[in-house]
């Protein structure tokens, strides 16, 4: 079976300044966001639950999200509990056996796209990532940066569904400075990526990548959180998808 990967614009400054502290319980309140999330996350919505059951479910999920989030390092990419396991097979068993991990991955995907990432426009990558669309030398900055973007962070997706990684504005500024090494054969995904890179560079944004995310839900979230609609032209949006 194949899978669907897609690349999106991402406001990493808002992510680290607001989203991460909220996920860690250091500021804000996740209650309303959790209730909104559960309407789509639970089969049959939340209408079948009593008020008491719903309140308990929300408290439990938020407690688990905060507990898991507090286990991440400042980059929010390395989870101490997961990382200390070491062995890859044992790590996967740890993740597969945790309902809390499933809820965290699904909420994280929803919350990031609600607060600091736009689902549209997106670069459709199909089964591959960004890397395969370019002819990159291993000696370039571009190689290491795009390799990191394509590398799957296994903590953020559940069974190959969810966010897999992201790059910050700083990462993309370095990539932009080295863009002459982003050589390609004229394929559409490569040209579309370079257009997205131009917009990200101009607006000091990062990029976020995911696999088989719940696009039917994410596309309903408010858009244009990263850049204004008038930024987009027929030239810089060529090869990108706005609606699916």
What does the model show?
- The structure is a single chain.
- This protein is α+β, with helices and mostly antiparallel strands and 244 residues long.
- It has ten helices and four strands; from the N terminus they run βααααααβαβααβα.
- A four-stranded antiparallel beta sheet has the order 2-1-4-3, sandwiched between helices.
- The model has no long low-confidence stretch (mean pLDDT 91).
Please give the oligomerization state of what you see.
single chain
Name the beta content range. 5-15%
Number of strands: 4
- Termini separation comes to 20 Å
Helix content: 40-55%
Helix and strand succession? EHHHHHHEHEHHEH
**SS element count, helices:** 10
Helix-strand makeup class: alpha+beta
Label the overall shape: globular
Would you identify the regions where 5 or more consecutive residues have pLDDT less than 50?
Answer: none
Q: Which sheet architecture does the biggest sheet show?
A: 4 strands, antiparallel
Indicate the mean pLDDT: 91
Spatial arrangement of strands, main beta sheet: 2-1-4-3
Q: Cα-atom Rg, whole angstroms? A: 18 Å
């Amino acid at each position: 079976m194949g899978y669907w990967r897609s690349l999106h614009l991402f406001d990493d400054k808002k992510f680290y300044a607001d989203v991460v502290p909220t996920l860690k319980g250091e500021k804000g309140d996740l209650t309303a966001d959790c209730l909104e999330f559960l309407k789509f996350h639970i089969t049959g919505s939340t209408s079948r639950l009593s008020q008491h059951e719903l309140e308990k479910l929300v408290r439990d999920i938020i407690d688990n999200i905060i507990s898991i989030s507090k286990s991440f390092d400042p980059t929010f990419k390395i989870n101490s509990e997961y990382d200390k396991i070491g062995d890859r097979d044992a790590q996967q068993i740890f993740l597969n056996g945790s309902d809390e991990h499933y809820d965290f991955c699904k909420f994280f995907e929803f919350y990031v796209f609600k607060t600091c990432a736009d689902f549209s426009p997106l670069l459709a990558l199909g089964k591959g990532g960004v890397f395969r669309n370019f002819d990159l030398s291993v000696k370039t900055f571009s190689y290491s940066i795009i390799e990191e973007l394509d590398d799957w962070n296994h903590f953020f997706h559940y069974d190959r569904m969810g966010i897999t990684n992201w790059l910050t504005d700083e990462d993309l500024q370095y990539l932009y400075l080295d863009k002459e090494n982003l050589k390609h054969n004229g394929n559409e995904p490569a040209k579309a990526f370079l257009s997205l890179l131009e917009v990200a560079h101009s607006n000091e944004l990062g990029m976020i990548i995911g696999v088989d995310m719940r696009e039917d839900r994410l596309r309903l979230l408010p858009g244009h959180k990263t850049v204004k609609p008038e930024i987009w032209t027929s030239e810089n949006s060529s090869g990108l998808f706005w609606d699916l």
